Amino acid sequence: MSPRSTSRRSLLATALAVPTAAVGAPLLSPTPAAAAPAGVVTVVDWSDVALAAGITAQAPVQARVVGIAGTEFLQLRGTVGCSLTADAQLGTLPAAIRPPKTTRGICPRNNNTGINATRVDADTAGRVMVYGPLAANPVTWIQLDSFSSVLR
């Protein structure tokens, strides 16, 4: 199957499967990822994300870029502890990873009043932002392993 005939649905399904297949361990495991599955090219290997003030790593927070059938994806992993009551910066991507456009994903967070996910964006300056916390519904942790978003 050529990259042009690959459906967007199959690309996204593959991208979502890559973190689990590549890590080969529970999502919260801090162990390094295994080799990427066949058909997946590591463009930029796992690199540490510089966390913003007030954000603490509960599991190492890292980013990488993988290519699947000619499409590049930004992937994050790790878990952070925080006390966010408004939109805030979570951290900054390494210099080798700068999205050409803002890219976003949804990540699990502490379940408070039935809200158990928050929006996480990475912008062209490399800022990783969290959107959705409120004073009445604070975010106390975010698990980033599910973040996989198209870069180009």
What's the topology here?
Elements lengths: L7 H16 L16 E9 L1 E2 L4 E13 L2 E14 L3 E5 L10 E10 L2 E8 L4 E5 L7 E5 L4 E3 L2
Antiparallel strand pairs: 1-3, 2-5, 3-4, 4-9, 4-10, 5-8, 6-7, 7-8
Describe the overall structure.
The chain is mainly beta. Helices cover 11% and strands 49% of the residues. It is globular.
Average per-residue pLDDT, rounded, comes to 85
* Unreliable residue runs: 1-5, 20-31
How large a portion of the residues is in β-strands, by DSSP E? Answer: over 45%
Residue share in helix: 10-25%
- What does the main sheet amount to? 5 strands, antiparallel
Q: Helix segment count?
A: 1
Strand tally, please? 10
End-to-end distance: 20 Å
SSE order, as H and E?
Answer: HEEEEEEEEEE
Overall, the morphology is globular
Tell me the structural class: mainly beta
Radius of gyration: 15 Å
In a few lines, what is going on in this structure?
The protein has 152 residues and is mostly beta strands. The protein has one helix at 8-23; strands at residues 40-48, 50-51, 56-68, 71-84, 88-92, 103-112, 115-122, 127-131, 139-143, 148-150.
